[in-house]
Structures are given as structure tokens and as C-alpha cells.
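Let's do one together. I've listed all components of the complex below, 1108 residues spread over two lines.
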Amino acid sequence: MGSLFRSETMCLAQLFLQSGTAYECLSALGEKGLVQFRDLNQNVSSFQRKFVGEVKRCEELERILAYLVQEITRADIPLPEGDASPPAPPLKQVLEMQEQLQKLEVELREVTKNKEKLRKNLLELIEYTHMLRVTRTFVKRNVEFEPTYEEFPALENDSLLDYSSMQRLGAKLGFVSGLISQGKVEAFEKMLWRVCKGYTILTYAELDEPLEDPETGEVIKWYVFLISFWGEQIGYKVKKICDCYHCHIYPYPNTAEERREIQEGLNTRIQDLYTVLHKTEDYLRQVLCKAAESVYSRVIQVKKMKAIYHMLNMCSFDVTNKCLIAEVWCPEADLHALRCALEEGSRESGATIPSFMNIIPTKETPPTLIRTNKFTEGFQNIVDAYGVGSYREVNPALFTIVTFPFLFAVMFGDFGHGFVMFLFALLLVLNENHPRLSQSQEIMRMFFNGRYILLLMGLFSVYTGLIYNDCFSKSVNLFGSGWNVSAMYGAAHAPSERKKMVLWNDSVVRHNRVLQLDPSIPGVFRGPYPLGIDPIWNLATNRLTFLNSFKMKMSVILGIIHMTFGVILGIFNHLHFRKKFNIYLVSIPELLFMLCIFGHLIFMIVYKWLLYSAETSRVAPSILIEFINMFLFPTSETNGLYPGQEHVQRLLLVVTALSVPVLFLGKPLFLLWLHNGRSCFGVSRSGYTLVRKDSEEEVSLLGSQDIEEGNHQMEDGCREVTCEEFNFGEILMTQVIHSIEYCLGCISNTASYLRLWALSLAHAHSEKLAPSEEDDGEEETDS
Amino acid sequence: MLEGAELYFNVDHGYLEGLVRGCKAGLLTERDYVNLVQCETLEDLKIHLQTTDYGNFLANQTNPLTVSKIDTEMRKKLCSEFEYFRNHSLEPLSTFFTYMTCSYMIDNVILLMNGALQKKSVKEILVKCHPLGRFTEMEAVNIAETPSDLFNAVLIETPLAPFFQDCMSENILDELNIELLRNKLYKFEADRRAFIITLNSFGTELSKEERETLFPTCGKLHPEGLRLLAQAEDFEQMKRVAEHYGVYKPLFEAVGDGSGGKTLEDVFYEHEVQMNVLAFNRQFHYGVFYAYTKLKEQEMRNIVWIAECISQRHRTKINNYIPIL
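Okay, and this is what the predicted structure of the assembly comes out as:
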């Protein structure tokens, strides 16, 4: 518990690393994760540090490895993930590794380049065959299908009818044909029309199968087009436009024979290319498979190596340049392990002079280290999300282990659901070593990481569910209800008693839709249900009213207790840091403020529960009204809960009002007094206090002067105060902000804790919606 | 904008404004520049840029690193940011973004036309084109021989069409005409352009009347100052014109004479940076998007300048970048 209640005690240590062994030592330290390094070269820019060259080399290796991983995943080769993480590579191996990787990269790049070239070639050939196939139909087609323009002269229309007649005319009719991607067709056609002013015919048809774009590797739809144009100038422009739209242009065969020849040639070449491509791909796969074996561990090794050099960059050199000096924060408990790791590192590198460390005293605030295990980790994470406490502060995570699941359970409050949740969490906890769980999807992993939280939440929900008597939103009658309906008929009562009571008879039962059980009739209420809420409430129409009142009050009580507990934890901090004045000037006013208002409210709630029984319930005052009246001082006298309530409330209000100025000004004024050498206010006023009122800047000036002069007198007192520069304005501002936050927080948080009730209501109600049957025998009860 | 548009601004554009302000906070600081200037090689530059918001944008570049590689990668980064803004914007902000790309598109068109004149291949020039001003029809620019051709065939469907509409002529597109065309197109960034046009026209065959037609018809100089500028014959006269305007007077005074001092262009750049930074002082307007893009461009120019100085071992002028404060 000790380590979870407060963070670890830390000390600042100086490591003297012999420059030959520094790498190995750091590697050993890193494997154990013992220390946090401080940057001793903060003023040196990143490229002027000692080990920049090595970091660069690591980055180069990382680049190659990233390339390898990219190629491997592209080839769909599974990356074997070794579970053990290998240590950083020894320096001797680094060069070898670098050479290997570089060779591999060069080889791989060459092979992939060849492959890409072949693929591109193949794609082009395939495109060409498609184009030939599709354009063959264009020329044969009838005129009606040609997308001709109206302005187009009739002569050219005819010429397209039959290609050979065209040639006989001796006209220079040119053809450009190729493929264009789907999205560009429209713009292409428009531009063609505008530039060539109609001296072209564009025919296009969609290709039935999508092809890969040789440049981007994307699979898209293509259009095959054929442009017939008139004249050389136009042809030049057409080609330009085709370039602009990245069309793939292929030569257009003039005769049918030529077309057939090309087609045949293409087919054989495609066959050849396929075989070559297959061989290249096989070879590539072999290379990649070999690389894939070691790539995962290499990535980790390089990462570790880079981290080591980053740390070395934070060290400074000593005067002789033979020794690196690092400053680290280390938990005191781990100092022995730290020494061992240093020895191990020195031994590994075979150095003659061992690296060593010594502890240096410091006044700086060490970093916060809270060790967690798999159980506390989840709770610690929740707390850390709100902020990490400073060094040796009380760690609220310890208490969160109980409060968080409990407050959840207050809202969840269902025996059945809680048990299901508990079982689910138990399943996760029992199987926590299963590898598939820790590598699962995002949402599943969230559940997995919070499995212990879920477990406790489920357990607590079982408890609150029992209290609420809710099992899948139905009540369970375990012990037999404490209410007796038959007693309402009153056969057992003496006639003299009957007159005072409203009893049931046949006509009453028949004619009233709602009947009311009266606990004041003897025999009707036989004492409370042993555990939780009486199951009979499940049948009552005023069930919600009753539960709401109960849960609301419970929420406020829990909330106030929770908040008060927080303030009390603060006292532990003040005691630990030996700032007793904080208890008197901060914590106690805070407690008074809260308890005088809300503590009284709780008192009233409990008092009312205890004081009023079924018989006297009709005269019980409303707590809400009483609470409001506490602030309003109404002239009309109400009865109140107890005699003299008014005076008590006035007293409490006065205490509350008095605690506010203490909270605001107490600490700053006390610190000021301390700062002035504990001299009495009356005495110091004769000095420079008049100046002080004028400007705060001068105060701080005077203050710092004061420290230099009067250092010796104050050393016995509070060292913390004097070692920082004293700035009254700043302290005052911080305290004022803190106080305002606290006072407003008290009120708004109390209101927020009502959410416990609201959510509990929502949970119960949403379940109720599903089985919405209504019992006829509704009874109304009164409490 | 409508009455009370500030109230509804965040509904549509609040996310993007927040984003652009965050991006602006990622611009290089003075400290970064001090560090960059100390770099010995481009590798050092890369390492330092890694510690800034640029991140490891150069990680996949094989050695050796060159200035142009850095430049293209930076442009790519800016472009992807801009595309992100644009894809997530709603009207009328998206139109505003489209307008912002127009100047880059004009530059690209002019670049391509110049390239075509010099018989360079389109692909070669395409690399140099600014990625923000890319559009599909762009590559067909060199089909056109006259501006009206250009308009009718290539540009009519692009957002540039309304700009080109006014400057149709049947002149052959030679270098001078292209330059004139560009100046006619640029009707924004009014006053600086007027000064620069005047400055550049000294010692050319451009007549004063022609010069006047090139001037934009808005801005603080319009109309009186422009008329005076059209008559100016040398830098001194131009300076005298500028002295009538409180904004430009200190700028012209900051211009050094001859050697060592700042050029007029630098002074204008500095002023622009200042104005762009000021744009961030106010909320609920689109100016921040423009300002951010311009600041980022200036930053890229600075980095390229420093990188060039480093790679050419020309360290004396390395401090002539324009800091973004």
C-alpha cells in the first residue's frame, strides 16, 4: 500500500560513464527501465550535439527498414512478430547490420523496379489489345451512332462510312486512338471541340473491365476513344490535348490486315511477359521472405539504439573528455539495481575502469513515480487522466479503487446486470494471458484494459442491486414482504379502534382504482424488510416518488461524504509537507464551509428519517423548504425539525460566512507575516509597510532584498517559503482563485452528485420500458 | 457578410479557424531561425527542422539532400494543409479558398506560356509549377497562340475565366506580352504591384500610357497616386509619390541605397508579413486563412534562402531572411 499511497522516493544520481562503455551501460539501464534522464544540454541545438552522426545513421536504418516493411506487407507476407524484444545491438554488429540492410535495399529496389517496368509494359500491351478490339467496331458502325456535331460537313461524315473510299479521295484523314480515364472524358471532349472547332470526330466507348492505371496503380474504369481529324495542324493540337489529359495513345492500324498482325504480335508478347513477370515475382518473394524473418527484431533493435543515442545526447562530457556525465532520477529502492546494471554494462564491454554513480543532494522537485500492477493500473490511469500529482503527494488512485466502482454501482444498481458484468469481467481476468485478447480490436481492448475495473463495478453493482432490490428491474421477494394487505380489512381490530382508521371493505375495493395501505393501522406494516427495499414497492404506483426521494437523499449524502473525504486527504498532504498552517488556514475553513451548509443538510435528512414514524409523517416538515429557509430567514415562524433550529442555523451561517474570508486571505497574509521575519504586524508597520501598499512590484523587490539580508534569521522556520522568491500578489491570486473554485465547486458538485440518482433512475427506467405490463391491483403506500 | 455574422461564424468556420490558428502557432520562431542559420550542412538543417512542426517530412528522401527536394517537400506539406482546409470548408469560405488559388493558377499559366515560348517540354515546367495552382487544363496552355485562344479553349471552364475576360487581345504571345498579360490579370495586391510595375518599367520600352493601363484599379493609390506614378521617371520621383501616403513613406525610407541596404521588394515583403501577422489579432474573418498561407510561403522562402546559402557556402547573406514575428 505504501507505494500506492504516495509516489516513490526519488533521488538524483550522477552517472559517470566511461566513454567506451557508455553505450553498453545505457543499454543495460534501458532494458531494466530504472531511471529518468535529465537533459544537460538544453541550450545546445539538436544538430550540434555529440551523437548526431549516430542518430542519423539510426534514422537511415529506420528508413531502410520502413521500406522493407512496406514491401513485405505489399507482398502479403506475414510479418513474424517475435514476442521477446531483443536488446540493442552491440556496437560491433551495427556496421555489419547496416551493410546487410543496405545491400538488401539495393537489391530489392532493383528487383521491384524491374517488376514495375514489366508490369507497366504488360498493362500497356493489354490496354492496346483492348483498344484494338473496341475500335474495330467504331469504323464499321453506322452514321447514326457516331456522335457527330451538327456543324460538321457532310463530306467527312461520308468519308467515315468507308475508310477505303476515304483514301481514294486522297484527303489527309488522321486517326488518334487510345484510352482515357473515365472522369476526364467529358472535359476532354469539350476541350477538343473548342480547340479544334469541330474538325474532329470523337468516338468513344466504355471498356467493360476496369484496368489498373500504370502510373498510380489504381484500378479505374477506362474509355477507349478514336479521334478522326482533318489536317496536320489539327492533329498537332489533338496530340497536345491528349497529352494534357494523360491519355494513353497507341498507334492506330490503317488496314484490317495490319490490325490482325498487331493483334497476334501483341498476344505472343503478352504471353512472354507473363512468364517473365512470374519469375521476377517469385524471386522477389524469396528475397522478401528472407528479409521478413529478421525485420521485426531489427526494427526494435534500431529503435533501442536510437533511444540510447538520444539519451547519450543528454549527457555532458567531463573536462578530460574521457567520461560522460549523466544526471538521472532514480527511485531510492532501485539504487542497488542501478549499480548492478552499470557493472553489467561495464563488464559486457570489457572496460578496465568501471562506470560508477554517486548521489547528489538536490532541492528540485523530483518526478512522480507510482508503481502499478495489473490490478491498480486501470485505476491509476483514470486518476492520471485528471492530472498527475506532484512528488510524494497523496495518490487518490488508492481510494479510487473503491469509490469509482461504488459510485458507478450506485448509478447502475441492478443485481442481475451487475452479475452478468461481473461474469464477463471474470472471464477476461481468467483468460488475461490469452494472446488474442491483448491484440484485439480497439473497443475490445478497452474492455480488456479495464477488466479489473469492470470486475469491481460488477461486484459493487450486485451489492447496490440487492439494496435497491432490483434484479433485471424486477424485485425479488427473498424474505417475504413486511407489509400485510389483509390487515387493511380490519377484521382483527377492536370496534373502538376502527373508527379512527380508514379501513377497506368490499365496496371500497370495488369502486376505487387506487387503494392505499396505511402503515399506522396495526398489523399492516410488520417491520422493515431485512435487506434493501421492500419488494412490495414494485407493485405500487408511487414507487418512483418513493425511490426518487430515497435516491436523491442518498446521492447528496454520498456526495458530501466523498467531497469531505477529499478535503481530509489534503490534510494528509499538509502534514507530510510540514505545512501545518495550511491545515488551519485552508483545510479547516474549507471543512467548516462545507459541513456548516451541507453537513447540516445531511443532519436534517438523517434526523428526519429517525424522528418521524408512520403515525407522525403527516406533520413532518419538508427538508427542501427548511434548507431554503436557512438562507432566507423568513418572518413567519415554521415549526422546524427540532427546537432552537433557527438559532443553530444562524450560528452555522455565521461560521460559514466567517470561514470565507479566512479561506481567501488567511494563507497569503500568514505567508507575508512569515516572510517579514515573523515580526508582529504592529512593529513592522513602522518600517516599509506604507510603501508596500502602493505597489506590489516594489513589494517583491523589497522581498528579494529582504531574503538576502535576513536569510539567517529565518532558516530555522520554513525553508520552503524562503527558497522561492516571495511574490505576495501571486500567492494572493492563487489562493483567491482556489477559494472561489472551492466555494462554487461545493455547491455545483453537490448538485452534480444528484446525477447518481438521475442515472440510476434512467437505468431502472430504460429497463422498465421493455416489459411494460401494468398490474391491476395497484396499491399506494405512504411513508 | 450579413448583420451579426460574427455570431454564426463559428457554426460553419469555427473549426477551421481554430485549426489555422494552431497551424500559425507552429510557424518557426526567431529561435528556430537562429538555430537554422548556424547549420553547417543541409543535413543539419533537416535535423533541426525535425524538431519543429515540420516533423520528419524529409524522412523518406534518399541522400544527398538538395535544396529543391526540401522545397518540393515543403510545398507538398503546405498543399496538403491547404487541401485539408479547403475540403473541410463550407460556402462562402470555400469560394474564398478558390480565389486564393487563382493567383497561383495565373502564375502557373504564365510560367507555362513562357516555357512554351522557350520550347521547353511541358513536363519540365510542370515540376516548377506551384502545386496550389494546379488544374487539369493547365497542360494544354501551350496550344494557344493568342490570349483569346487561350481564353476560349483552355481557361473558359476554370475559375480564372472572369479574370481573363477583360484582357483579350489578338496579340501574339511573346515574352513582353505575357508579362503585360500577367500584370493585367493581377488586379489584387494593388499598391505593391503598382510600385513594382513602375520600378520594373524604368529603362524598358514600355510607354507611360501603357504602364498606366497595367495598374490595378483599387487600393490606396487609386486614382491620384497611380496617375502620378505613371508619370514617374526614376526611383526618386517614385519615392516622392510615395511620400504622400503615410503607409508607404516609412517603407521607402527603409530602402537602402545601392549596396548593402534592403531592396524595395524586401521592404514590401516585411510589410506584408507584418500585416499578415496582424490579421490574427481579430477573430471571425477569412483573412486568417489568406494570412496563414502567405506567412507559410514566406517561411518557405526563408528556409529555401537559408538552405541555398548553406549549400552554396555563401554565408555572408544568410541573415537576409525575413523573420516572421
